[in-house]
Amino acid sequence: MLSAIPHKPLVQIVDDNPTNIDILVNALQEDYRLGISKNGARAMAYAAKHRPLLILLDIMMPDMNGYDVCRKLKESPRTSDIAVIFITAVNETSSKTKGFEIGAVDYITKPFNAAEVRARVQNHVNLRRMQEELNNQNRILQQKVEEKTALTQQILQLTIQSMSQMAESRDPYTAGHQQRVAQLACAIAGRMKMTAEEIDTIRVAGLLHDIGKFRIPTDILNRPGKILDVEYEFLKVHPTVAYDFLKDIPFPGPVSEIVYQHHEKLDGSGYPRGLSRDDILPEARILTVADVIEAMSSHRPYRPALGTDIALAEIVKHRGDQFDPEVVDACEAVFNEDAFQFL
């Protein structure tokens, strides 16, 4: 049975003894809505349907004792968080310990003292309310954190896009290069079963890998004909410039270091630091291959586009000495099996 005052907490009483029920009802009915169940099966059904804040549960009942009822309540996701107080004439420590082990929060011993019953129930109701308030505050805080994180990520993505466009605006012949490199690098990384976080880091590094070219004079970037040796040496500083520019930005992952390494080769013949083998990050090895493929496939002021077949042949030719074999194999699979195309 339920009282008709909906704003009061609901407490369920489970006992097969009418006298015990009457005593508990008289002690609690002024402050709580009360639900009565006289056996274990009905108790579980009632609890699942109405989800009381607290259950006063007798231990000694026919068919199913209180321990079994409590155990089943705690096993069900719908009722596992309902506080259970055992009511019993048993005063042995071992019996109380068993109840706590299966999830009870307290004991009330028969014969009942009305003041004690009210005090114990009120303490656990207050505790439950505090827990619910804390959970609500945590949910609100988590929502605010998620909203703030989403806004921060949006700002970061817009900033990344702006920086990428800024770098490419000085070199119209390579417009879209960073976006296409990022696209291919992510496809290779996906083929290599890298995590979503790693792929996103590679995407950001791809979008920014040539940002250091803003320090390179436009007459070197844009003029036709073969680049002179002195101009090439000047061009080789752009990974260092990019690293210095990006290193203090809190990217999700080692973006600045990947950009710093995107011209390094396994055999140590790359630049700017001449790194080799395990000194080169896996993400940078992917970006290196994607950069070579896109650059050779596209038009440049000093030569026409060579196409992806020639570009793929070049990385296969240097598979294992300049380029990571696993990355080369994944890149071939991306084009030959996945039918990759630049957007």
> Which outline best applies?
rod-shaped
CATH architecture of the largest domain: Orthogonal Bundle
How many β strands by DSSP? 5
Q: Compute the gyration radius: what is it?
A: 35 Å
Mean pLDDT across residues: 84
Q: What is the CATH superfamily label of the largest domain?
A: Hypothetical protein af1432
Helix count from the secondary structure assignment? 14
Tag the structure with descriptive keywords.
single chain, 343 residues, alpha/beta, Hypothetical protein af1432, 2 domains, five-stranded parallel beta sheet, rod-shaped, disordered N terminus
Describe the protein.
By secondary structure, the chain is an alpha/beta fold. The chain has two domains: 10-139, Rossmann fold (3-Layer(aba) Sandwich), CATH 3.40.50.2300; 170-336, Orthogonal Bundle (Hypothetical protein af1432), CATH 1.10.3210.10. The protein is built from 14 helices and five strands. β4, α4 and β5 (106-109) form a beta-alpha-beta unit. The protein starts with 9 loop residues before the first strand and ends in a 7-residue tail after the last helix.
Condensed summary:
The protein is of the alpha/beta class.
List the helices and strands and how they pair.
Blueprint: E1 10-14, H1 18-28, E2 33-37, H2 40-50, E3 54-58, H3 66-75, E4 83-88, H4 93-101, E5 106-109, H5 114-169, H6 177-191, H7 196-208, H8 218-222, H9 229-235, H10 238-246, H11 255-261, H12 282-297, H13 308-317, H14 325-336
Parallel strand pairs: 1-2, 1-3, 3-4, 4-5
Helix pairs in contact: 1-5, 2-3, 6-7, 6-12, 6-14, 7-11, 7-12, 10-11, 11-12, 12-13
